Amino acid sequence: MHRLLLSNDDGVHAPGLRALHDALCDHARLRVVAPDRDKSGASNSLTLGRPLALTALENGFYSVDGTPADCVYLGVNGVWEERPDLVISGINHGANLGDDVLYSGTVAAAMEGRNLGMTAIAMSLVGTHHFDTAGRVAATLIGAASSLSLPPRSLLNVNVPDLPWEDIRGFRVTRLGYRGPAARPMKVLDPRGRERYWIAAVGDNADDGADTDFAAIEAGFVSITPLQTDLTRQAALHDVQGWLDAFA
Question: Which terminus has fewer CB within 10 Å in the chain: N or C?
């Protein structure tokens, strides 16, 4: 039976994390380590300036006063004798499509697992209602995980339409689309009249072609996108070298 480490970025009390646990508890041995509060948008940050508190909760989960990456780091490294076979992050409350993966704590938790040598999957529900559907998707993927072979330092980013299970049209392997620029921040005044700013909503889709994660979700399919941690733009290496040679 697989040993799974579960984490998220919505916090240890999030309904999506509970739904993921409940969907997988009959299929694997589970360990749950998640932030003690909402850490959405934390990306891959680690807490380096202070020690971290790992707290056992009454439901058997563990909370950490840190980031999603902190949680996976502690869950994999030395807190328990047995290392997990896989790391699963989620189920996120909302999409992680296109450029979202650069900011997502959900994807970052999976990426930290991948960096530590684990097979890793990030799970997101494109909405906040049908967590049971996303849980069934997770169980389906875990049931076939033993035959999954990924290149080194890669992971899967899975997004599930917010639909009943019977309305899911299937699974698609996709590439990331991308969004246009976000709107300008929203200025507000706090109770003492001081200016504060809300980060604005994401931009409109700039690339949602037929093979993208955006298009799969729109058509009612589960989107599965392999991600890599090497961000090198290989196609630009020659151009940058030429630019450097011109003045160096």
Answer: C
Q: What is the mean pLDDT of residues 23-30?
A: 92
CA gap 154, 103 in Å, rounded: 17
Separation of CA 112 from chain center: 10
Structural domains present in the chain: 2-179+206-247 (3.40.1210.10)
Beta bridge partners of 122: 89, 157
Q: In the predicted model, is pLDDT for residue 130 greater than 90?
A: yes
131, HSE (Cβ side, Cα atoms, 13 Å)? 17
Q: Please tell me the distance from the alpha carbon of residue 210 to that of residue 41, in angstroms, as a whole number.
A: 27
**DSSP assignment string, 98-160:** GGGGGT-HHHHHHHHHHHTT-EEEEEEEESSS-HHHHHHHHHHHHHTGGG----TTEEEEEEE
* Per-residue pLDDT at 156 exceeds 90: yes
